[in-house]
Amino acid sequence: MKHELITTDRELEELCRALAGAERIAFDTEFVSEDTYRPQLCLVQVAAAGRLAVIDPLKVQNLQPFWAVLAEGGHETIVHAGRQEIEFSLAAIGRLPNRLFDVQIAAGMVGLEYPASYGSLVSKLLGLTPQKGETRTDWRRRPLSERQIEYALADVDHLGEMRDKLGQRLARLKRTAWFESEMADWLTSVQEAQNRERWRKVAGSSGLPPRGLALVREIWTWRESEASRRNCPVKRVLRDDLIVELARRRSTDPKQIRAIRGMERGDLARSIPELSAAIDRALKISDADCPRVVRTDNNSQLNLLGQFLSSALGSICRAAEVAPSIVGTASDVRELVAFTLAGKRGEPPLLAHGWRADVVGQVFEDLLEGKLSIRIRDPKSDQPLEFERAEVE
Length: 393
Known about the structure:
Blueprint: E1 4-6, H1 9-19, E2 24-32, E3 40-48, E4 51-55, H2 64-71, E5 76-79, H3 83-93, E6 100-102, H4 103-108, H5 118-126, H6 146-157, H7 159-172, H8 176-192, H9 210-230, H10 234-237, H11 240-249, H12 254-258, H13 266-284, H14 300-319, H15 324-327, H16 330-341, H17 354-368, E7 372-376, E8 385-389
Parallel strand pairs: 1-4, 2-5, 5-6
Antiparallel strand pairs: 2-3, 3-4, 7-8
Protein backbone atom coordinates (compact mmCIF):
# COMPACT_ATOMS: atom_id res chain seq x y z
CA MET A 1 0.00 0.00 0.00
CA LYS A 2 1.45 3.35 -1.10
CA HIS A 3 2.31 5.59 1.79
CA GLU A 4 4.69 8.23 3.11
CA LEU A 5 7.03 7.64 6.02
CA ILE A 6 7.49 10.85 8.02
CA THR A 7 10.75 10.87 9.98
CA THR A 8 11.82 14.53 10.07
CA ASP A 9 10.30 17.78 11.30
CA ARG A 10 10.41 19.21 7.78
CA GLU A 11 8.48 16.26 6.35
CA LEU A 12 5.89 16.60 9.13
CA GLU A 13 5.47 20.32 8.45
CA GLU A 14 4.82 19.59 4.75
CA LEU A 15 2.26 16.92 5.65
CA CYS A 16 0.54 19.29 8.08
CA ARG A 17 0.18 21.93 5.36
CA ALA A 18 -1.67 19.36 3.25
CA LEU A 19 -3.80 18.23 6.21
CA ALA A 20 -4.82 21.80 6.95
CA GLY A 21 -7.02 21.80 3.84
CA ALA A 22 -8.54 18.34 4.34
CA GLU A 23 -12.27 17.85 4.88
CA ARG A 24 -11.63 14.93 7.20
CA ILE A 25 -8.64 13.32 8.84
CA ALA A 26 -8.60 9.70 9.98
CA PHE A 27 -5.85 8.76 12.37
CA ASP A 28 -4.72 6.06 14.76
CA THR A 29 -1.71 5.43 16.97
CA GLU A 30 0.48 2.58 18.09
CA PHE A 31 1.87 2.80 21.59
CA VAL A 32 3.43 0.72 24.35
CA SER A 33 2.24 1.13 27.93
CA GLU A 34 3.69 -1.80 29.85
CA ASP A 35 6.95 -0.19 30.96
CA THR A 36 6.20 3.51 31.46
CA TYR A 37 4.02 5.73 33.63
CA ARG A 38 2.24 7.12 30.60
CA PRO A 39 1.84 5.21 27.31
CA GLN A 40 4.77 5.77 24.97
CA LEU A 41 3.65 6.96 21.54
CA CYS A 42 5.49 4.95 18.89
CA LEU A 43 3.63 5.54 15.62
CA VAL A 44 0.90 7.78 14.19
CA GLN A 45 -1.01 6.66 11.09
CA VAL A 46 -2.94 9.20 9.03
CA ALA A 47 -5.37 8.96 6.11
CA ALA A 48 -6.49 12.29 4.66
CA ALA A 49 -6.62 14.29 1.44
CA GLY A 50 -5.89 11.17 -0.62
CA ARG A 51 -2.70 10.46 1.33
CA LEU A 52 -1.61 7.68 3.64
CA ALA A 53 1.18 8.61 6.01
CA VAL A 54 3.04 7.07 8.91
CA ILE A 55 4.63 9.50 11.37
CA ASP A 56 7.51 8.17 13.45
CA PRO A 57 7.47 9.95 16.84
CA LEU A 58 10.74 8.30 17.79
CA LYS A 59 12.47 10.23 15.00
CA VAL A 60 10.40 13.36 14.53
CA GLN A 61 11.50 15.83 17.19
CA ASN A 62 8.35 17.98 17.40
CA LEU A 63 4.86 16.55 16.93
CA GLN A 64 3.11 19.75 18.06
CA PRO A 65 2.23 20.84 14.49
CA PHE A 66 0.34 17.60 13.91
CA TRP A 67 -1.74 17.88 17.08
CA ALA A 68 -2.41 21.55 16.30
CA VAL A 69 -3.71 20.68 12.82
CA LEU A 70 -6.06 18.09 14.32
CA ALA A 71 -7.47 20.67 16.73
CA GLU A 72 -7.89 23.48 14.19
CA GLY A 73 -9.90 24.05 11.01
CA GLY A 74 -13.27 22.74 9.94
CA HIS A 75 -12.40 19.12 9.23
CA GLU A 76 -13.90 16.04 10.86
CA THR A 77 -11.53 13.75 12.78
CA ILE A 78 -12.26 10.02 12.51
CA VAL A 79 -10.99 7.47 15.04
CA HIS A 80 -11.76 4.01 16.34
CA ALA A 81 -11.84 3.59 20.14
CA GLY A 82 -10.02 6.89 20.31
CA ARG A 83 -9.61 7.45 24.06
CA GLN A 84 -5.84 7.08 23.98
CA GLU A 85 -5.54 9.26 20.87
CA ILE A 86 -7.52 11.96 22.66
CA GLU A 87 -5.29 11.69 25.72
CA PHE A 88 -2.19 12.09 23.54
CA SER A 89 -3.69 15.26 22.06
CA LEU A 90 -4.64 16.67 25.46
CA ALA A 91 -1.17 15.91 26.85
CA ALA A 92 0.52 17.55 23.86
CA ILE A 93 -1.49 20.77 23.43
CA GLY A 94 -4.33 20.64 25.94
CA ARG A 95 -6.93 20.56 23.16
CA LEU A 96 -9.20 17.99 21.51
CA PRO A 97 -9.09 17.02 17.85
CA ASN A 98 -11.79 18.84 15.91
CA ARG A 99 -15.28 17.28 15.36
CA LEU A 100 -14.48 13.79 16.50
CA PHE A 101 -16.35 10.82 15.04
CA ASP A 102 -15.56 7.56 16.83
CA VAL A 103 -16.73 4.63 14.72
CA GLN A 104 -16.82 2.30 17.73
CA ILE A 105 -19.35 4.49 19.54
CA ALA A 106 -21.38 5.02 16.35
CA ALA A 107 -21.51 1.25 15.79
CA GLY A 108 -23.00 0.69 19.24
CA MET A 109 -25.70 3.27 18.55
CA VAL A 110 -26.93 1.55 15.40
CA GLY A 111 -27.24 -1.91 16.92
CA LEU A 112 -23.82 -3.41 16.23
CA GLU A 113 -21.79 -4.88 19.08
CA TYR A 114 -20.13 -2.55 21.55
CA PRO A 115 -17.27 -2.25 22.11
CA ALA A 116 -16.44 -3.71 18.69
CA SER A 117 -12.88 -4.28 17.54
CA TYR A 118 -11.63 -2.57 14.40
CA GLY A 119 -11.42 -5.90 12.57
CA SER A 120 -14.97 -6.83 13.53
CA LEU A 121 -16.33 -3.52 12.18
CA VAL A 122 -14.36 -3.82 8.95
CA SER A 123 -15.84 -7.27 8.47
CA LYS A 124 -19.43 -6.36 9.36
CA LEU A 125 -19.60 -3.00 7.61
CA LEU A 126 -17.40 -3.56 4.57
CA GLY A 127 -17.31 -7.34 4.17
CA LEU A 128 -13.51 -7.36 4.26
CA THR A 129 -11.08 -9.49 6.25
CA PRO A 130 -8.35 -7.33 7.83
CA GLN A 131 -4.87 -8.77 8.06
CA LYS A 132 -3.62 -10.10 11.37
CA GLY A 133 -0.27 -11.03 12.79
CA GLU A 134 1.27 -7.92 14.36
CA THR A 135 -0.82 -7.64 17.52
CA ARG A 136 2.21 -8.43 19.70
CA THR A 137 4.60 -6.06 17.95
CA ASP A 138 6.94 -4.00 20.09
CA TRP A 139 6.38 -0.71 18.28
CA ARG A 140 9.44 0.85 19.92
CA ARG A 141 11.87 -1.26 17.93
CA ARG A 142 13.41 0.05 14.74
CA PRO A 143 13.57 -0.44 11.84
CA LEU A 144 9.93 -1.33 11.23
CA SER A 145 9.27 -3.85 8.49
CA GLU A 146 6.96 -3.13 5.55
CA ARG A 147 4.58 -5.71 6.96
CA GLN A 148 4.43 -3.86 10.27
CA ILE A 149 3.80 -0.53 8.55
CA GLU A 150 1.07 -1.98 6.35
CA TYR A 151 -0.57 -3.55 9.39
CA ALA A 152 -0.54 -0.18 11.13
CA LEU A 153 -1.91 1.64 8.08
CA ALA A 154 -4.77 -0.85 7.79
CA ASP A 155 -6.11 0.66 11.02
CA VAL A 156 -6.84 3.96 9.24
CA ASP A 157 -7.29 2.92 5.62
CA HIS A 158 -10.95 1.95 6.11
CA LEU A 159 -12.00 4.49 8.73
CA GLY A 160 -13.47 6.94 6.23
CA GLU A 161 -15.55 4.31 4.49
CA MET A 162 -16.83 2.91 7.78
CA ARG A 163 -17.69 6.39 8.97
CA ASP A 164 -19.85 6.88 5.86
CA LYS A 165 -21.69 3.60 6.39
CA LEU A 166 -22.34 4.37 10.03
CA GLY A 167 -23.36 7.94 9.28
CA GLN A 168 -25.98 6.64 6.87
CA ARG A 169 -27.36 4.23 9.49
CA LEU A 170 -27.46 6.96 12.12
CA ALA A 171 -29.40 9.18 9.72
CA ARG A 172 -31.80 6.35 8.78
CA LEU A 173 -32.54 5.67 12.45
CA LYS A 174 -32.74 9.43 13.17
CA ARG A 175 -29.92 9.12 15.68
CA THR A 176 -27.39 11.66 14.45
CA ALA A 177 -28.31 14.00 17.31
CA TRP A 178 -28.08 11.10 19.76
CA PHE A 179 -24.59 10.30 18.52
CA GLU A 180 -23.42 13.91 18.72
CA SER A 181 -24.71 14.12 22.28
CA GLU A 182 -22.99 10.87 23.23
CA MET A 183 -19.70 12.02 21.70
CA ALA A 184 -19.88 15.31 23.61
CA ASP A 185 -20.56 13.51 26.91
CA TRP A 186 -17.83 10.96 26.25
CA LEU A 187 -15.24 13.62 25.43
CA THR A 188 -16.14 15.48 28.60
CA SER A 189 -15.66 12.30 30.62
CA VAL A 190 -12.23 11.72 29.03
CA GLN A 191 -11.16 15.27 29.86
CA GLU A 192 -12.43 15.04 33.43
CA ALA A 193 -10.93 11.61 34.09
CA GLN A 194 -7.66 13.02 35.38
CA ASN A 195 -9.50 15.07 38.00
CA ARG A 196 -11.68 12.29 39.36
CA GLU A 197 -11.04 10.41 42.56
CA ARG A 198 -9.08 7.66 40.82
CA TRP A 199 -7.63 6.53 44.13
CA ARG A 200 -11.02 4.99 44.90
CA LYS A 201 -10.18 2.30 42.32
CA VAL A 202 -7.49 0.85 44.59
CA ALA A 203 -8.53 -2.80 44.88
CA GLY A 204 -9.75 -3.77 48.35
CA SER A 205 -10.25 -0.22 49.64
CA SER A 206 -14.04 -0.06 49.39
CA GLY A 207 -14.69 -1.46 52.87
CA LEU A 208 -12.43 0.96 54.72
CA PRO A 209 -13.74 3.70 57.05
CA PRO A 210 -13.17 7.40 56.27
CA ARG A 211 -9.77 7.56 57.98
CA GLY A 212 -8.65 4.44 56.14
CA LEU A 213 -9.75 6.02 52.87
CA ALA A 214 -7.75 9.13 53.72
CA LEU A 215 -4.70 6.91 54.15
CA VAL A 216 -5.34 5.18 50.83
CA ARG A 217 -5.69 8.56 49.11
CA GLU A 218 -2.45 9.91 50.53
CA ILE A 219 -0.42 6.76 49.80
CA TRP A 220 -1.94 6.56 46.31
CA THR A 221 -0.93 10.19 45.68
CA TRP A 222 2.62 9.39 46.71
CA ARG A 223 2.63 6.35 44.42
CA GLU A 224 1.47 8.43 41.44
CA SER A 225 4.17 11.01 42.03
CA GLU A 226 6.86 8.36 42.43
CA ALA A 227 5.75 6.45 39.31
CA SER A 228 5.80 9.68 37.31
CA ARG A 229 9.26 10.54 38.61
CA ARG A 230 10.60 7.09 37.74
CA ASN A 231 8.50 6.82 34.55
CA CYS A 232 7.30 3.34 35.39
CA PRO A 233 3.88 1.68 35.88
CA VAL A 234 2.31 2.57 39.23
CA LYS A 235 2.01 -1.01 40.43
CA ARG A 236 5.75 -1.49 40.05
CA VAL A 237 6.12 1.18 42.71
CA LEU A 238 3.58 -0.22 45.20
CA ARG A 239 0.87 -2.85 44.77
CA ASP A 240 -2.75 -2.08 45.64
CA ASP A 241 -2.87 -4.73 48.37
CA LEU A 242 0.10 -3.11 50.11
CA ILE A 243 -1.60 0.30 50.00
CA VAL A 244 -4.67 -1.21 51.69
CA GLU A 245 -2.55 -3.04 54.30
CA LEU A 246 -0.68 0.16 55.15
CA ALA A 247 -4.04 1.95 55.49
CA ARG A 248 -5.35 -0.74 57.83
CA ARG A 249 -2.31 -0.70 60.10
CA ARG A 250 -2.17 3.11 60.33
CA SER A 251 1.41 3.00 61.58
CA THR A 252 4.10 5.56 60.81
CA ASP A 253 6.76 3.42 62.51
CA PRO A 254 9.34 2.41 59.85
CA LYS A 255 9.94 -0.91 61.59
CA GLN A 256 6.24 -1.85 61.47
CA ILE A 257 6.00 -0.75 57.85
CA ARG A 258 9.07 -2.80 56.95
CA ALA A 259 7.58 -5.84 58.70
CA ILE A 260 4.65 -6.04 56.26
CA ARG A 261 5.12 -8.98 53.89
CA GLY A 262 5.94 -7.59 50.46
CA MET A 263 7.67 -4.46 51.76
CA GLU A 264 11.08 -6.12 51.91
CA ARG A 265 11.87 -5.25 48.26
CA GLY A 266 14.92 -3.01 48.05
CA ASP A 267 13.34 0.01 46.36
CA LEU A 268 10.35 -0.14 48.74
CA ALA A 269 12.62 -0.31 51.76
CA ARG A 270 14.31 2.87 50.56
CA SER A 271 10.89 4.54 50.21
CA ILE A 272 9.73 3.76 53.75
CA PRO A 273 10.53 7.26 55.11
CA GLU A 274 8.38 8.80 52.36
CA LEU A 275 5.57 6.32 53.01
CA SER A 276 5.76 7.05 56.72
CA ALA A 277 5.43 10.77 55.95
CA ALA A 278 2.41 10.13 53.70
CA ILE A 279 0.73 8.07 56.42
CA ASP A 280 1.44 10.78 58.96
CA ARG A 281 -0.19 13.42 56.75
CA ALA A 282 -3.32 11.30 56.42
CA LEU A 283 -3.51 10.70 60.17
CA LYS A 284 -3.27 14.43 60.90
CA ILE A 285 -6.11 15.68 58.69
CA SER A 286 -9.42 16.46 60.36
CA ASP A 287 -12.34 14.03 60.32
CA ALA A 288 -14.25 16.51 58.16
CA ASP A 289 -11.54 16.33 55.48
CA CYS A 290 -11.55 12.54 55.31
CA PRO A 291 -13.22 11.08 52.19
CA ARG A 292 -16.79 9.99 52.63
CA VAL A 293 -17.69 6.32 52.43
CA VAL A 294 -19.67 5.51 49.29
CA ARG A 295 -22.26 3.05 50.50
CA THR A 296 -23.91 0.46 48.31
CA ASP A 297 -27.64 0.04 48.82
CA ASN A 298 -28.23 -3.63 49.58
CA ASN A 299 -32.02 -3.31 49.66
CA SER A 300 -33.28 -6.75 48.61
CA GLN A 301 -36.31 -5.27 46.83
CA LEU A 302 -34.10 -2.95 44.83
CA ASN A 303 -31.70 -5.78 43.97
CA LEU A 304 -34.55 -8.02 42.78
CA LEU A 305 -36.11 -5.30 40.59
CA GLY A 306 -32.68 -4.36 39.26
CA GLN A 307 -31.94 -7.95 38.25
CA PHE A 308 -35.32 -8.31 36.61
CA LEU A 309 -35.02 -5.12 34.57
CA SER A 310 -31.38 -5.82 33.67
CA SER A 311 -32.59 -9.02 32.01
CA ALA A 312 -35.13 -7.00 30.03
CA LEU A 313 -32.54 -4.40 28.98
CA GLY A 314 -31.11 -6.57 26.22
CA SER A 315 -34.51 -7.20 24.63
CA ILE A 316 -35.44 -3.52 24.72
CA CYS A 317 -32.12 -2.49 23.16
CA ARG A 318 -32.14 -5.12 20.44
CA ALA A 319 -35.66 -4.09 19.44
CA ALA A 320 -34.47 -0.48 19.32
CA GLU A 321 -31.33 -1.39 17.28
CA VAL A 322 -28.83 -0.21 19.85
CA ALA A 323 -26.13 -2.20 21.65
CA PRO A 324 -27.18 -2.91 25.28
CA SER A 325 -23.64 -2.36 26.58
CA ILE A 326 -23.52 1.22 25.30
CA VAL A 327 -26.87 2.01 26.93
CA GLY A 328 -25.91 1.01 30.46
CA THR A 329 -24.86 -1.57 33.01
CA ALA A 330 -26.71 -3.49 35.71
CA SER A 331 -25.58 -0.80 38.15
CA ASP A 332 -27.13 1.89 35.93
CA VAL A 333 -30.41 -0.06 35.94
CA ARG A 334 -30.39 -0.25 39.76
CA GLU A 335 -29.80 3.50 39.96
CA LEU A 336 -32.78 4.12 37.69
CA VAL A 337 -34.98 1.84 39.80
CA ALA A 338 -33.92 3.60 43.01
CA PHE A 339 -34.51 7.03 41.42
CA THR A 340 -38.00 6.05 40.21
CA LEU A 341 -39.05 4.44 43.49
CA ALA A 342 -37.85 7.53 45.39
CA GLY A 343 -40.26 9.73 43.46
CA LYS A 344 -37.59 10.97 41.04
CA ARG A 345 -35.94 13.16 43.63
CA GLY A 346 -32.35 14.24 43.19
CA GLU A 347 -30.13 14.21 40.11
CA PRO A 348 -31.46 11.94 37.34
CA PRO A 349 -29.25 8.88 36.77
CA LEU A 350 -27.72 7.98 33.40
CA LEU A 351 -30.76 6.07 32.09
CA ALA A 352 -33.22 8.83 33.00
CA HIS A 353 -32.03 11.56 30.66
CA GLY A 354 -30.95 12.12 27.08
CA TRP A 355 -31.28 9.51 24.39
CA ARG A 356 -31.06 6.67 26.94
CA ALA A 357 -34.33 7.82 28.46
CA ASP A 358 -35.88 7.57 24.99
CA VAL A 359 -34.62 3.99 24.57
CA VAL A 360 -35.23 2.43 28.00
CA GLY A 361 -36.17 5.03 30.62
CA GLN A 362 -39.87 5.27 29.84
CA VAL A 363 -40.19 1.50 29.30
CA PHE A 364 -38.67 0.80 32.71
CA GLU A 365 -40.88 3.42 34.34
CA ASP A 366 -43.99 1.86 32.80
CA LEU A 367 -42.89 -1.60 33.97
CA LEU A 368 -42.35 -0.35 37.51
CA GLU A 369 -45.76 1.32 37.51
CA GLY A 370 -47.51 -1.79 36.17
CA LYS A 371 -48.45 -0.14 32.88
CA LEU A 372 -46.40 -2.72 30.96
CA SER A 373 -45.94 -6.43 31.50
CA ILE A 374 -43.41 -8.92 30.11
CA ARG A 375 -44.16 -12.38 28.82
CA ILE A 376 -42.18 -15.06 27.02
CA ARG A 377 -43.41 -15.08 23.45
CA ASP A 378 -41.06 -17.70 21.97
CA PRO A 379 -38.22 -19.13 24.09
CA LYS A 380 -36.33 -20.16 20.92
CA SER A 381 -36.55 -16.74 19.30
CA ASP A 382 -33.78 -14.12 19.18
CA GLN A 383 -36.35 -11.87 20.87
CA PRO A 384 -38.01 -14.22 23.39
CA LEU A 385 -39.53 -11.45 25.53
CA GLU A 386 -42.58 -9.43 24.58
CA PHE A 387 -43.85 -6.27 26.27
CA GLU A 388 -47.59 -5.83 26.58
CA ARG A 389 -49.48 -2.71 27.52
CA ALA A 390 -51.74 -3.34 30.51
CA GLU A 391 -55.43 -2.90 29.90
CA VAL A 392 -56.95 0.17 31.52
CA GLU A 393 -60.03 -0.76 33.59
